[in-house]
Amino acid sequence: MILHNSPLSRQNEGMTYAPFRIFFNLLHIFHYGLLRKHFEFLRNYMGNMDMNEIDHFMPIMMRMEEDADTSPLVTSGSSHFLWIKHSNLYLVAMTKKNANAALVYSFLYKIVQVFKEYFKELEEESIRDNFVIVYELMDEVMDFGFPQTTDSKILQEYITQQGHKLDVGAPRPPATVTNAVSWRSEGIKYRKNEVFMDVIESVNLLVSATGSVLRSEIMGSIKLKVVLSGMPELRLGLNDKVLFEITGREKSKTVELEDVQFHQCVRLSRFENDRTISFIPPDGESELMSYRLNTTVKPLIWIESVIEKFSHSRVEIKVKAKSQFKSRSTANNVAIMVPVPSDADSPKFKTSTGSCKYLPEKSVVQWNIKSFPGGKEYMMRAHFGLPSVESDELEGKRPITVNFEIPYFTVSGIQVRYLKIIEKSGYQALPWVRYITQSGDYQLRTN
Q1: Which CATH superfamily is 194-297+411-444 part of?
Q2: With a threshold of 0.70, does the pTM exceed it?
Q3: Rounded Cα gap, residues 385 and 430, in angstroms
Q4: What is the percentage of the chain residues whose pLDDT exceeds 90?
């Protein structure tokens, strides 16, 4: 099992980005050498690289685009560029050392997340309009090549949208910066103390035209909304397979979690010792942990489709949808996207439940079922006209995609066995737990 904690400053404290610089570039149709239509935000953290080294980056990228060969790490001489692209912006870290590449990329994605928390959208305009705050954030999130505070909630305590207001005298850093619990402020008070926990699982599924499951995966996360006073400690117990084996309860229903990632608040040493998830939670909303399960999942909603063409003038599509979960559960807001020929017109629909609409811009029929109980089966028929002259161009057969959400249900069987709230003042707090299963990349191929 791989464990990750989010605070980058805890990991690999001897690792440096030498130096770390963020470089934003807009690529248009103009050749880089003819018209430099880019703007840069640079920060040289260690001072051991020439600031002009970044000029080698864009020519390398343009050559890579011409060769259709992209790599997340490129080299020019002794300089290494580790980059990611977000919208039309490039974020680039430069180093001459053998740096921890995984940590560099983790930091770059964290920078994107922080900027999006501040500016809603990370794009050229938001960067131009907030360049002062961009530099302030870059000064705070890293120091001399070492990641520092990357939690946007903490950063927003002293870097506001209006920027810094200079006070007379020595500025005092917020307590959260120097506090051992940097993700939570002191002195938080609420009249009613509650914790809301959502266990959310997304099902990624790919089914072949013959009905065999080609890919099956469950991506899970546990999200919190914390409304608690003071500095409470929470302890969470799951039906974890390793824990139950240690305690001699192998016959109980358990789940074997893979690729577990925790929020920085979780005490990893405690988890590794006795599998207890112990933490002081951030205030408000946060993701406590995420996990993955590589397991064969029976398709929760099964789709069968038949497409018939009649003398190249019309086409009829028959679709049968069946829910393959227990009758006590119900899928909500089910949307079944059935591909149709791109030249189809004059749609007519007939359904046993729900409603249909034709989306010509996507060349699909969207069948919406607001409530789909377990163990039910529904039918839909769609009739389209086709041009009298059939196109010689053969269209690729696109899969049917399904979107849905099933409350009070987890496909993996994960369960919250207990959620204890301990605070020195001894107040009473209410924990609420909700389970949700939803579709991820859910596709069924057709004949």
Answers
A1: Mu homology domain, subdomain B (2.60.40.1170)
A2: no
A3: 58
A4: 39
